[in-house]
Amino acid sequence: MAQLRDHDGRPCSLEVVLYEKAASTQAGGDADRATADLSRPVARVVVRPEVICRDHLQDLGYAVARDCPDLEGADLPVGVEYFDKHPLILMLIAKKSCSPTWDQADLAAGAPMHIETLDRGPLVKFMRKKGLDPKNLLFIVQPVAVSDAPAPQQSSGFEISGTSDEQREWVTLRVPSYAPFADAAVQPHTELSPSHAGDHWIRVCVPRELLEKLAHDEAAYAARAGDAWAERAWFLAGNLGRQNGRITARVRAICPAVDAHATVADVVFGPQTWVRARQEMDARGLDLLGWVHTHSIERLRKVARRQPAGAAATAAISTPAADANGATAPSDLHAALADLKSGLFLSQTDVDSAQRLGFRSPTSLTAVLDADACATVGESRVDEFGNIIGFWGWAYGFLARRSVQLITGE
Amino acid sequence: MVANVCQCEIQIEHNGQLRKEKVKTSSNTVNATTLRQQMLHFFEVGSPIDDFEVESDEDESWTLLGLDGNGGSVELDGANVVNLNDYSTLRLTPRTAGGSPEAR
Predict the structure, then answer these.
(1) How far apart are CA A18 and CA A364, in angstroms?
(2) Model pTM?
(3) Where are the domains of chain A?
(4) Fewer C-beta neighbours within 10 Å, C or N terminus of chain A?
């Protein structure tokens, strides 16, 4: 197991400490807020830092490339800082050398890691295996001294190993490289739903003609499909590189996700979806930049109306995890649908897929196309895209609305 | 240490990249479910805990494909025994979903 270094330069791993949840007794407090007796942990488990932090290490590597282009391609050791006063946040630090010191000159970049943003799926499985109910537990993550005990064997009678048995002492990250675009000129553009984050994380350029074509295609499909309408999905393909020194994602094609299976409430990739998409992008020399899928609030409401209250099909429609402003949405389906003004939201399934099933790169885009707004547009020219499509992207473990530049031309 | 019984290429579509590794295995035949679990474990997807045994991919979020080198691919699933010599490449792709999983 590779190791991090703590602030004192000592090798460390990460430990998850689990506590039993106690409901808040604060009068008038948030009903969902819970507390725990931090003096009585119910379980401790050491986790592999290079795995549990993998997504955040990717974010950190990206941040180094963005802010220190001269370090592109370098393998940097990673340390961790832990703040007793803020136990829910650890700081991952990329260092320029394996020196145990934390001199300012030796630091390449840092990235906060809120433990809420860790992929908790494997942790939940682990808790269940130990007979613990994850719903009744809270947890923190903290650095601990590395144990000398060997890691337990993981074997089920069949094993795979790499052709080299390299064991690195430090957790390291490879700083990604971004080649400069041949075209340095920044095209005239308008902003699609400018976000508070602006384009600091990454600049994304999308030809407005591509989005207009997509909206028209969806409108035509909806007219053909009628009541048989189902969600659809596409891949965003293009190039990732530097334009005038800034890391830029340039969307050049929107490719249909073939072999997908869909209903009015979901779309699921089939065995050939990724294979065919990768073949097409390779043939055209394009990178995977993200994905788009449709939502239709009108059709979801129609399905909800058809079903008696509490029916399985109604309850099956997932509630949104975040609305257009990123706020947590209510849990009740009918209330959620009533509150939603458009299909531009992410369901929990969308967030889970973006996190674990293909789109967790720091540059990945998750986009939603509002099928109802597309139907309104029909075949006419689209002047305002803000109510038709929304883009989200990752920043320090959270999916946030992403600022996108609509450009003219290819 | 894994015996050098069979050498093959395994791939995973993960975080926007197609990651590839040349590997050796302890047998040239294995059932598809075990192979999928071992590949997830090899690529360190979803097993970040020290004493975490290799478990079943409970939500079956990944599809295992055998690629024959001529552009053809076969979905490998369940307890079917896979002969690793039949495929030039084994690829895991996510069963990406938008919307509601419960509606399926």
Answers:
(1) 32
(2) 0.87
(3) 3-174, 189-407
(4) C
The stretches in chain A having pLDDT less than 50 are: 309-319, 323-331
- Mean pLDDT (whole number) for B29-34: 90
Q: Which of B95, B96, B100 is nearest to A321 (CA)?
A: B100
* H/E segment holding residue B36: helix B32-42
Q: Which pLDDT does position A315 carry in this prediction?
A: 36
Closest Cβ–Cβ partner in A158, A274, A317 for B30: A158
> CATH assignment of A189-407?
3.40.140.10
Q: Which residues of A touch B16 (CB under 8 A)?
A: 288-289, 358-361, 363-364
Per-residue pLDDT tens over the stretch B58-103: 557 899 999 987 878 899 987 789 999 999 999 999 999 998 534 3
> What's the CA gap between A162 and A285, in Å, rounded?
29
Sheet of strand A266-269, all strands in order from the earlier edge strand to the far edge:
A260-262, A266-269, B97-99
**Cβ pair B48:A51 closer than 8 A:** yes
Per-residue pLDDT reduced to its tens digit, A68-116: 999 999 999 999 998 888 888 999 999 998 887 788 888 999 999 998 8
Which chain A residues are Cβ-neighbours of B65 within 8 angstroms? Answer: 271, 275
SS3 per residue for chain A: CCEEECCCCCEEEEEEEEEEEEECCCCCCCCCCEEEEEEEEEEEEEECHHHHCHHHHHHHHHHHHHHCHHHCCCEEEEEEEECCCCCCEEEEEEECCCCCCCCHHHEEEEEEEEHHHCCCHHHHHHHHHCCCCHHHEEEEEEEEECCCCCCCCCCCCCCEEECCCCCCCECEEECCCCCECCCCCCCCEEEECCCCCCCCCCEEEEEHHHHHHHHHHHHHHHHHHHHHCCCCEEEEEEEEEEECCEEEEEEEEEEECCCEEECCCEEEECCCHHHHHHHHHHHHCCEEEEEEEEECHHHHHHHHHHCCCCCHHHHHCCCEEECCCCCCCCCCHHHHHHHCCCCCCEEHHHHHHHHHCCCCCCCCEEEEEEHHHHHHHCCCCCCCCCCCEEEEEEECCEEEECCEEEECCC
Shortest CB distance from B2 goes to which of A50, A160, A353?
Answer: A160
Task: Express as a percent the part of chain B with pLDDT over 70.
Answer: 78
Nearest beta carbon to residue B73 from set A162, A275, A318: A275
CB crowding A318-356: b at 16 or more within 10 Å, else e = bbbbbbbebeebeeebeebbeebebbbbbbbbbbbbbbb
Residue of chain A nearest B45, judged by CA positions: A51
Asked whether the beta carbons of residue B96 and residue A156 sit closer than 8 angstroms, the reply is no
Complex confidence, ipTM: 0.87
DSSP secondary-structure letter at B80? P
d(CA B39, CA B23): 10
Cα B76 to its chain centre, rounded Å, is 9
